[in-house]
Amino acid sequence: MAHGIASQGKVTITVDEYSSNPTQAFTHYNINQSRFQPPHVHMVDPTPYDTPKPAGHTRFVCVSDTHSRTDGIQMPYGDVLLHTGDFTELGLPSEVKKFNDWLDNVCDIKS
What we know:
Layout: E1 2-7, E2 10-15, H1 22-32, E3 60-64, E4 80-84, H2 93-106
Protein name: Metallophosphoesterase domain containing 2
């Protein structure tokens, strides 16, 4: 866990004291805060899926770890879709096809 501090165009990376022990980091931050949140991370409330996008803004839609469970996900309109983590449960070709079909349905790409 590291974060940057800008100083005169240079960035200094400071390393969290628990970087070498993720279990200890989770325990420390989980005990000392109401939920896991390192001190340099600022949580934001998610935007409701049906919120209109302001003019001149770029909307990033971020999802992760869907594990072949994309049925019923209400995806907001966005300009950029980021999917991180696992998108299949077992990595089966049928799961990859299902995910690809889902992407085809949620991504309204016009050429």
